[in-house]
Specification:
ten-stranded mixed sheet; alpha/beta; globular
Length: 357
């Protein structure tokens, strides 16, 4: 499928491709996830990590991840690397503030991804004192839709309490994320008004991809027409209003690229983004198939793995197979996000180009 971008946009995209190629060669780490727990206080229908209320493995001792952070701080400038703590639900760790204080002491900025259920004012104050810089928090619909998605009554109210805390905090970097599905698709305008009323300025929306628990739940997935309506909604709420909406980083959106994002699509997983998973595995974004793990901190040196592996992430030609092999838009999408690939599948799980035809 050929691109629908204008000549000016195609020229800008050509420059962007050169930028992506250069970044893949430089392979500079500037974003590091720590999947600090596989324990969660909710049972979200769309969970890509399949986290559980009773985990199959114990939480990684903080000292093991802090040892990785010390390696990174010794090799690179910690001020230029954002550490993002995720899970499971990171707020279930009892030592999160202590870990944050250690990271702050090393010079790292740090943030977290949370469902907001346990984000009380007192917990937030403690984390801010420990250096918390940024938060991504989820709101997946109005009360009934959110509680259905999250698998627990009262989760909407808890999320809104957390969002209110963030919105009132001066100098806080945060955004609200909404995973759009069949149940909340008709609520987007109402969600927008609710967020504006709460004081939220940045709102990120995603289409749910059929991975993890969402793989076989049709209520979670949008059809092609709904996907385009979602992108049009985001384009209408990009700037000049009381809230700025944007689309997530899942894939190349062709003519929508400059309308729903600040820049062109670039999957930075394994290029500039690394992770330490709950069992010590070294990967990129935590929701990428575990078949693409590059090592383990208990048997490998993190810096050695980062600098000498991740080739499959940087040279995406490995994925120019199946439906992608002869696609005219390959040079722009490069197979879309790494989370859409499986080691033994010649095709991506979702093709965004196909959805936008």
């Amino acid at each position: 499928m050929e691109s629908k971008l204008s000549f000016k946009e195609r020229l800008a995209l050509s420059l962007h491709r050169s930028y992506v190629k250069r970044q893949s060669q430089l392979h500079q780490l500037n974003y590091l996830f720590w999947e600090c727990t596989s324990l969660c206080n909710l049972a979200c229908l769309h969970c890509g990590s399949d986290c559980k209320r009773i985990p199959e493995i114990s939480d990684m001792p903080a000292k093991d991840f802090l040892n990785v952070a010390k390696q990174v701080a010794k090799k690179y400038k910690p001020q230029s690397i954002m550490i993002v703590i995720t899970g499971g639900e990171p707020l279930l760790r009892k030592d999160l503030a202590e870990v944050g204080a250690e990271l702050k002491g090393m010079g790292f900025p740090w943030g977290m991804v949370t469902n907001g259920y346990a984000l009380s004012e007192s917990t937030f104050r403690k984390l801010r004192q420990s250096g918390l810089r940024s938060v991504t928090i989820s709101l997946d619909g109005l009360r009934d839709s959110h509680d259905w998605m999250r698998g627990k009554s009262g989760s909407f109210d808890k999320a809104m309490e957390g969002i209110s805390i963030l919105a009132k905090e001066k100098g806080m970097t945060y955004d609200v994320v909404t995973c759009v599905n069949q149940r909340n698709f008709c609520e987007l305008e109402q969600i927008r008004e609710l967020l504006i009323k709460t004081g939220v300025k940045n709102w990120r929306l995603f289409m749910i991809d059929p991975i993890g628990r969402a793989a076989h739940n049709k209520e979670l997935l949008l059809d092609n027409g709904q996907f385009k309506i979602l992108l049009d909604f985001i384009a209408d709420n990009r700037g000049g209003g009381e809230i700025t909406a944007s689309y997530g980083c899942d894939g190349f959106l062709d003519a929508y690229e400059t309308k729903v994002r600040d820049g062109f699509f670039f999957c930075k997983a394994g290029v500039r983004v690394g992770s330490v998973l709950a069992n010590g595995d070294i990967g990129a974004c935590p929701n990428i198939d575990r078949g693409f793990v590059q090592g383990n901190i208990f048997t490998d040196n993190f810096i050695d793995v980062w600098e000498n592996k991740f080739e499959i992430y940087r040279n995406r030609k490995h994925f120019k197979t199946g439906i992608c092999e002869k696609c005219l838009n390959w040079k722009n999408c490069r197979g879309d996000g790494m989370h859409l690939h499986e080691p033994n599948n010649p095709n991506p799980i979702v093709c965004y180009n196909s959805m936008l035809r």
